[in-house]
Each structure stands twice: as structure tokens, then as C-alpha cells.
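User: I'm putting together a small comparison set for a docking exercise, and I want a reference complex before I start. The sequence is below, and the ligand is zinc ion. Could you produce the 3D structure with the ligand included, as C-alpha cells?
Assistant: Of course. I'll restate your input first, then give the C-alpha cells for the complex.
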Amino acid sequence: MKIIFLGTNGWYDSPTGNTVCILIETDKASILLDAGNGLYKADRYIGPDKPVHLFISHTHLDHIIGLHILNKFEFKQGLTIHTQPGTGTALQTMFSSTYSLPFANLSYPVGIEEFEGLYKNQSFEVQTAKMEHSVPTIGFRISVKNKIIAYCPDTGYCDNAVKLAKEADLLIAECAYRPGEESENWPHLNPETAAKIAVEAQTKQLALIHFDAYRYPTMESRQLAQKTAQSIFPNTVATADEQFIEF
Ligand SMILES: [Zn+2]
Ligand SMILES: [Zn+2]
């Protein structure tokens, strides 16, 4: 199994990378987490003849704008978009002919499934938990091939984030804020709060992602975030586009 960080920016694309998209490539399925602009690189890694499952955390544009690129792909086994209750219609509207190519006009089947709680199929399981953000946002805990991967997208520090990451093999956590920075009105993690979640959840590894493009203009600034988080949780890596972790 390979986890490839296709897009690692938050908010907008910049020379540091594309907006957030993660691919978990397994033998039986391709699992995508969020659909920022990094999604356009998916066909460099997704094998043919496997079903593709995309899990959307929330509808802020940096997490869905990549859906505009779907007509680039040929997902022969189809694409299922898993999203929160109430957001399926919003996605259909945003990706209608007024703004993009409608899902129904793609060369492969696209299904939209609203869900909350547990999603299960023959090769993997996904459990959701509500995050703390300015709009309804869910995080994901993925069980695949005896490994647990937790993804905490846009959120402030919260108990659900710790529960989601409990003893995970890998926690992928957003890091929009700089060290020491926080805001109650617009909750996001910084390196310290992401590391605190990893410590409390006793995860094995922490990967920081969703670096706000304005606050983290260079890869050096991400290295500083990595160093800050490592002082609390040593096994931390600051991700970069197309970097990967293999199990
Ligand atoms: Zn975001
Ligand atoms: Zn957001």
C-alpha cells in the first residue's frame, strides 16, 4: 500500500504545491481523500481496473476544486464520491454544465453517496467523525490491510480528532497555521496542536499537510513546522507534493 500526497497546500495553489488531495493506492481499490487541485496527478499513480473511492471532508473549494478535472481520467471501474449528508446536491450543482462538465457526461460512471458514520466494502472500511471548523467537516479513519490511516482535515484541536487518530499507524493532519498561531473564529491546526493530537492518540507517525499557501510560502517554512512538531512528536514529517509513505 502506498500513500501519495498529490496536493499538500491549503487555500490555493502556489510554487510549494497544489491544494489538498491524498491517494491511498491499494491492491483492490484506489482511495482518494479530498479533491483539491492535486487531484490532476492521480492518473500518474492510479492503476487501471480498480474502483476509485473519493471521500470529501467538506465543501470549501480547496477540497473540491479538483473535481473540475475529472474528465481527464478514465476510471474504468467507476468513481464513487462519498460526502456528508446534505452536500451531494451542492456538488451536483457546482459541477453542472454552468460551471464544469457534469458528472453524468463523464466517460465512466460516477456515483455520489452521502454517508456519516461507517462505510464498509470488501477491501476497506472508513469511519467518520465531526471536526471543528467554520462549516460542517468530517475526518476519516481508514482501515485497510491491517493498517489504520487517520485523516484530520480542516479542524481546530478537538477530542474527535484524538479519537479518530487513536493508535493509528499514520495520522495525516492539516497544518494551516504557523507555530503558535490559532483562531477561534476560523479553527485550524498548527504544528503544536497537530503533534498534541498524535501524542494523545498514540499514533505511530504524523504527516503534516494542508499548509496554508500564504502562511507557508516556501518549503523551508514547512521544515520549520516539521521541527516544531518533532519537538512534541518526534516521528513527524512535513509532506510535499508527490512525496509518499509506503507500508
Ligand atoms: Zn482547507
Ligand atoms: Zn475548510
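Residues 10, 60, 62-63, 154, 210 surround zinc ion (ligand 1) (CB under 6 Å). Helices lie at 61-64, 88-94, 159-165, 191-201, 219-230.
User: Thanks, that's exactly what I needed.
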